[in-house]
Design brief:
eight-stranded mixed β-sheet, 10 strands, globular, TIM Barrel, alpha/beta
């Protein structure tokens, strides 16, 4: 199936102006999900400047069909990476630092200790900054999740991504119920830390199926929700089934607030970590 022509409401305006975000990231030998996942908002975010730091290397042990991050055998965990993230965040003068990672099923704790060390290093170099983490599912391990939460992030994010019916197609190595359980465990272990999750639409889901996922997320204790249009990042990835119209995103947002979410960002170009500082505020 070929993607349909990109509609006007999807097209991101070109961001002009000089900024040093990419130079800073390269000087500290860091990866970002903005670049690895070919995010359409990269120019906008880099110009602010802000970025979502991707730790634990740039090779994922899973092969989700919506994602352009490389899959294969990851390198060893770099013990200096947490400090480099903190130094780069300080150089960029960030007030809100977002940390994510590739999935590391090869590690006993899924990389949870590296998340914790990175949070602590950011706190050391930027004591006034807020920190959001966007983690993998850690295979559902509470011990791994506890390591991350005990380091004290200000927001815990784990993306549900899509509806249950499409999981085998979109996320063959993940599990919908396991992801819900991760969010539930996080919200129950430390209710003070807001839990957040994100959905992609345009992969063949129905309106009612999306609403059902929102209901599941609320039942799991999730309080912040992002909904955005899936865009095919590369030829090897799943094609777009539908470009969802802006008014449908508005309906999703209205229903999400009715369900009790405290903050909802719903729109074609919304991404999980985009404007994360504003969401937190």
């Amino acid at each position: 199936m070929k993607n349909k022509r990109l509609p006007e409401w999807i097209r991101q305006s070109h961001i002009t102006g000089r900024h040093n975000t990419k130079r800073i990231l390269r000087s500290y030998r860091l990866s970002t999900v903005c670049e690895e996942a070919r995010c359409p908002n990269k120019g906008y975010c880099f110009s602010k400047p802000t970025a979502t730091f991707m730790i634990l290397g740039d090779i994922c042990t899973r092969n989700c069909r919506f994602c352009s991050v490389s899959s294969g055998q990851p390198l060893r965990v770099d013990p200096e990476e947490p400090e480099r993230v903190a130094l780069a965040a300080k150089k960029m003068k960030l007030r809100f630092v977002v940390i994510t990672s590739v999935t590391r099923d090869d590690l006993p704790d899924g990389g949870a200790e590296q998340f914790a060390r990175t949070i602590r290093k950011v706190r050391e170099y930027l004591p006034k900054a807020k920190v959001e983490v966007l983690t993998p599912d850690f295979k559902g391990s509470f011990d791994a999740l506890k390591k991350v939460l005990d380091a004290g992030p200000d927001v815990f994010n784990h993306n549900i991504e899509t509806i249950p019916r499409l999981y085998k197609k979109v996320r063959p190595q993940a599990d919908y119920r396991r992801s819900l359980q991760v969010l539930r465990m996080a919200s129950e272990y430390n209710p003070i830390i807001p839990t957040k999750s994100g959905l992609m639409v345009g992969l063949g889901e129905s309106f009612d199926e999306v609403v059902s996922v929102m209901e599941d997320l609320r039942e799991a204790g999730c309080t912040i929700l992002t909904i955005g249009q899936y865009l095919q990042p590369g030829r090897e990835n799943l094609p777009v089934v539908e470009y969802v119209r802006p008014e449908v995103f508005e309906r999703y947002r209205d229903i999400a607030f009715q369900l009790g979410f405290r903050y909802v960002a719903s729109g074609p170009l919304v991404r999980s970590s985009m404007n994360a500082e504003e969401m937190y505020a």
